[in-house]
Amino acid sequence: MPDMRALLREAAGEDCILEQESMKKHTTFHIGGPADYFAAPTTAEGVRRIVKLCREMEYPFYVIGNGSNLLVSDQGYRGLVLQLYKNFSGIEISSRNRIQAQSGAMLSVIAKRALEAGWIGFEFASGIPGTLGGAVVMNAGAYGGEMKDVLVSATVLNREGELLEIPVSELALGYRRSTVPANGWIVLGASLALTDGNAEAIRARMEELKQQRVQKQPLEFPSAGSTFKRPEGFFAGKLIMDAGLRGYTVGGAQVSEKHCGFVVNRGGATAGDVRKLIADVRARVYEAFGVLLEPEIRMLGTFAEEDCG
Fold it and tell me: What distance in Å separates the CA atoms of residue 254 and residue 277, rounded to the nearest whole number?
């Protein structure tokens, strides 16, 4: 049996690989058991080597950013978590209203750089607590804006270990979806196109959106953001509220009293608590309105059958 630990350290470097790393440290839910291995490479070549090794050895791996849309099971993950975040977050400003950024760059930081340059178009993303890579994969959006409005192209690592520049027209960006997962691509960076604007107006718009989030979203508690996708013709939060589930609690997990579209960690919540709560909410909403809510957050690891509803 190959020594995966030794192979990973050889591929990524001695300081790049952690073992039995608690995923509570790496998700905005502050929930999750240990990953067998955890890597945070600093270069595209480092990412390529790690992915190549995992694929050759048929060893499970999962790519995350800052873990803002993720629920990791209490048992953790039997494989390698590859994090593209702080170690992979470079941002470059060009003179042609273009921003080039690595996939680990936070959307809020990119928005700040756009503000400093006096460019409009990225204000919608200023309060989204995620990274550029995840935003491309999910076509992240808020307050009337989406990634597809500003994205020019994405740099991806394909299954063969090649770096490709994929134009936005080939990403088929739609509501919380793209062709990235189906193609087995890993987003390493992206190019954004913005337009000239007034810095004060941009700052005012970002502040306005910030205040809306503070007033409407439960930012005081750990969460994974909006829990469910928006069902066609409805709003998930209103359906949940109308089903009488505001404040509904399972263990340490709760349907937010401030915004029913969010599930929050009130303290000590387990992944099992969250998964059971999600299953209960889906069942109650379907029973009341005939609408089956689809989770927006991603689940990683093995969950007990009784948590799945």
Answer: 8
